[in-house]
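EI: anyone free to look at a 168-residue chain?
SC: sure, send it
EI:
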Amino acid sequence: MAGIHAPAISQGASPTQRGNPLSAFIGEWTLKNDLFQQVWDGKTVETITIPKHFTKCDPINTEGSVLCVVSAGNLKGHILWVMGANRHVHHLSHFGTERSGVGVGMLDERSNLALKISFRDEPEGTYRLYNYTWVSRDEYTMMSRQYDKHGRATGNWYGGTFIRLPRL
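SC: here you go
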């Protein structure tokens, strides 16, 4: 699931998105081949199919912000990313009834995004490192790895490859 190096994504942004450092993510997305992988017991890799996964990311009324609304089968949610003046990306998300996440990270010159996020429904002190890595202008991988309160990898992770839907 590792992405290959690609040119900076935000260079091709439309005039209305050009000032938004998160513009690479703006658009409509789906899972490549409807496939998602996950490990919840530290060792067993499950490959699941999520047909009709749909994520729509739009700029909102503050500079450097993107709101993504996600529909992944029975799981619905949203993600808000805001680029601060110090170039940190602040993350706030909510999925289902209990999965609320908050964190911060950095966006690199290729628009790859790395975040450290804590979730309310996971054990206290644990966190996840998320990496959004661009494969091309219209494809990125997302990998989330869990760490315990001592900073040790638990072996639990999930991720997938996302492709941009063509504009109609």
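EI: The CA atoms of residues 16 and 59 lie 9 Å apart.
SC: 👍
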